[in-house]
């Protein structure tokens, strides 16, 4: 197995004057053509320096950036492929399409089925729910829905398409010649990638503090702790469309660049005003420090940012929290539009559970902001906003609204039924003696009975029982249901009727796997 420095020593780097260095902050190895650079360029080693100073030759809308990418690779011999659904029905190990390569795992990557085109380019909507509690708080560094622009090549001994040299060359030319980013601005950090059972060395493309892209050279399959050579070598790249759009505009948050007018419309509906002065831009520059999922504490991460910009955490929380919640609603409603539009039915199992969790989380955030519009109305705003780029969502608009409304009706009934359960639980000796509800019980009440933590906390504290809601509550719950390897349906809430599809919705035909047979669909 080739790993270590030799996996990254490319002729492209040598011919273009790149130097291999070790970051004095994080210790990672990286490549740069700037002889004076001592820091890898990624956050939190360095703050974002593109806010207010975009490094590209012009500002791109999200549609313009997507087209620039796909057209560039079409000109370079790649076939453009339409997006796949965000629900990974062809996979047994994951429920959602979490990366563009997931569209081709396991059948294409194993060599069983040829790719639809070779090489190909795609811009694939992806959903990841392992960072839910970061969404909105990191300025756009984390989103639950995003598009992964990618170019993929599948090579074998009989058919060599391209490998490391060409991959890095294409990447560098897209950033420099197409987008106008100076070569000195780009760092390539050495890394190792694993996903879906496949693995390989990779390079992370960094510009002004933010990771824009990942170039994976997938050549191994991990079996029982051992790495075995794959029958084909796979170029697995990922270019973050939203991040590329963001740096081209240099806005204080990615949400302004990605959503445009919809951003201001949502703030108006929520009654949220933009912070005055430079505090938003200054705090977002240190978004790399705001990882609540890793630290487990919003206050601790907020304090780090407050120290950097010379203010106190409480003031920063008061100023930014309403905007952060509004941005989370903006993100989550787009995610739900895609989930429901691609046929996910909220339930208590598999992808349906993740849709249910997100509907309820979004509803709770909307309530905390005092938003009077219905959740389904906000979903339809998303459908209308993305109509030109994803017309298929418009075709499912009535279905999206009906599913959302029915799920929220069910949610309200669940809360009413569950309040009595909490009362009985509080009579347990252990809880009465400690006057504290364990976090695990809080999660169980949500996971099994659908009771939101805020409701449980209110009931408990009225009876003198303390409750601490983790800052990462929704992420913890989502991760328990992220893949098919997780245990079956939770007990309680959805035994019986709730595990069945909604009554009143049109019946859906049985899914047939045709993504590889008919790639033009």
From TrEMBL:
<dbReference type="GO" id="GO:0002161">
    <property type="term" value="F:aminoacyl-tRNA deacylase activity"/>
</dbReference>
<dbReference type="Pfam" id="PF01411">
    <property type="entry name" value="tRNA-synt_2c"/>
</dbReference>
<keyword id="KW-0694">RNA-binding</keyword>
<keyword id="KW-0820">tRNA-binding</keyword>
<keyword id="KW-0030">Aminoacyl-tRNA synthetase</keyword>
<dbReference type="InterPro" id="IPR002318">
    <property type="entry name" value="Ala-tRNA-lgiase_IIc"/>
</dbReference>
<keyword id="KW-0436">Ligase</keyword>
<dbReference type="GO" id="GO:0000049">
    <property type="term" value="F:tRNA binding"/>
</dbReference>
<feature type="region of interest" description="Disordered">
    <location>
        <begin position="481"/>
        <end position="511"/>
    </location>
</feature>
<keyword id="KW-0963">Cytoplasm</keyword>
<dbReference type="GO" id="GO:0004813">
    <property type="term" value="F:alanine-tRNA ligase activity"/>
</dbReference>
<keyword id="KW-0648">Protein biosynthesis</keyword>
<feature type="domain" description="Alanyl-transfer RNA synthetases family profile">
    <location>
        <begin position="60"/>
        <end position="521"/>
    </location>
</feature>
<keyword id="KW-0067">ATP-binding</keyword>
<dbReference type="InterPro" id="IPR045864">
    <property type="entry name" value="aa-tRNA-synth_II/BPL/LPL"/>
</dbReference>
<protein>
    <recommendedName>
        <fullName>alanine--tRNA ligase</fullName>
        <ecNumber>6.1.1.7</ecNumber>
    </recommendedName>
</protein>
<dbReference type="GO" id="GO:0005524">
    <property type="term" value="F:ATP binding"/>
</dbReference>
<dbReference type="GO" id="GO:0005737">
    <property type="term" value="C:cytoplasm"/>
</dbReference>
<keyword id="KW-0862">Zinc</keyword>
<dbReference type="InterPro" id="IPR018164">
    <property type="entry name" value="Ala-tRNA-synth_IIc_N"/>
</dbReference>
<feature type="compositionally biased region" description="Basic and acidic residues">
    <location>
        <begin position="491"/>
        <end position="501"/>
    </location>
</feature>
<comment type="similarity">
    <text>Belongs to the class-II aminoacyl-tRNA synthetase family.</text>
</comment>
<dbReference type="InterPro" id="IPR050058">
    <property type="entry name" value="Ala-tRNA_ligase"/>
</dbReference>
<dbReference type="GO" id="GO:0006419">
    <property type="term" value="P:alanyl-tRNA aminoacylation"/>
</dbReference>
<dbReference type="InterPro" id="IPR018162">
    <property type="entry name" value="Ala-tRNA-ligase_IIc_anticod-bd"/>
</dbReference>
<keyword id="KW-0547">Nucleotide-binding</keyword>
<dbReference type="InterPro" id="IPR018165">
    <property type="entry name" value="Ala-tRNA-synth_IIc_core"/>
</dbReference>
<dbReference type="GO" id="GO:0046872">
    <property type="term" value="F:metal ion binding"/>
</dbReference>
<keyword id="KW-0479">Metal-binding</keyword>
């Amino acid at each position: 197995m080739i790993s270590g420095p030799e996996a990254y020593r490319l002729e492209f780097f040598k011919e273009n004057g790149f130097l291999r260095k070790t970051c004095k902050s994080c210790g990672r190895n990286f490549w740069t053509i700037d002889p004076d650079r001592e820091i890898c360029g990624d956050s939190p080693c360095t703050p974002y320096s593109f806010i207010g100073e975009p490094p590209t030759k012009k500002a791109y809308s999200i549609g313009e950036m997507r087209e620039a990418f796909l057209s560039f690779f079409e000109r370079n011999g790649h076939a453009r492929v339409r997006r796949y659904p965000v629900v990974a029905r062809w996979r047994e190990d994951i429920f959602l399409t979490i990366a563009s390569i997931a569209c081709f795992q396991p059948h294409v990557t194993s060599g069983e089925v040829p790719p639809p085109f070779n090489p190909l380019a795609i811009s694939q909507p992806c959903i990841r729910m392992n960072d839910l509690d970061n969404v909105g708080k990191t300025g756009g560094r984390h989103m639950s829905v995003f598009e992964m622009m990618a170019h993929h090549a599948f090579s074998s001994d009989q058919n060599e398409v391209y490998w490391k040299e060409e991959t890095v060359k294409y990447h560098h030319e897209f950033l420099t010649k197409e987008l106008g980013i100076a070569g000195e601005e780009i760092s390539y950090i050495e890394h190792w990638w694993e996903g879906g059972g496949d693995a390989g060395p990779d390079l992370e493309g960094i510009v002004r503090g933010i990771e824009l892209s990942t170039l994976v050279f997938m050549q191994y399959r991990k079996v029982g702790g051992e790495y075995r050579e794959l029958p084909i070598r796979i170029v697995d790249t990922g270019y973050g469309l939203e991040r590329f759009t963001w740096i081209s505009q240099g806005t204080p948050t990615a949400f302004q660049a990605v959503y445009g007018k919809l951003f201001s419309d949502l703030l108006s509906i929520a009654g949220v005003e933009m912070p005055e002065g430079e505090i938003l831009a200054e705090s977002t520059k240190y978004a790399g420090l705001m990882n609540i999922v890793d630290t487990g504490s919003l206050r601790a991460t907020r304090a780090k940012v407050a120290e950097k910009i010379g203010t106190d955490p409480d003031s920063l929380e008061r100023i930014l929290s309403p905007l952060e919640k509004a941005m989370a609603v903006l993100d989550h409603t787009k995610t739900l539009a895609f989930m429901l539009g691609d046929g996910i039915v909220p339930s208590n199992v598999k992808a349906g559970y993740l849709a249910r969790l997100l509907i309820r989380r979004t509803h709770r955030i909307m309530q905390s902001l005092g938003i009077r519009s219905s959740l389904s109305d906000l979903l339809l705003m998303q459908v209308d906003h993305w109509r030109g780029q994803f017309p298929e969502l418009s075709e499912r608009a009535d279905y999206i609204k009906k599913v959302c409304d029915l799920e929220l009706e069910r949610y309200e009934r669940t809360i009413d039924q569950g309040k009595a359960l909490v009362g009985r639980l509080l009579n347990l000796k252990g809880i009465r003696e400690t006057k504290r509800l364990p976090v695990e019980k809080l999660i169980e009440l949500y996971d099994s009975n659908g009771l939101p933590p805020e409701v449980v906390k209110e009931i408990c504290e009225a009876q003198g029982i303390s409750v601490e809601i983790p800052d990462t509550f929704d992420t913890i719950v989502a991760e328990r249901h992220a893949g098919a390897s997780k245990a079956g349906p939770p007990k309680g809430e959805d035994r019986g009727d709730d595990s069945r599809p909604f009554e009143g919705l049109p019946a859906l035909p049985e899914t047939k796997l045709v993504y590889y047979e008919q790639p033009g669909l």
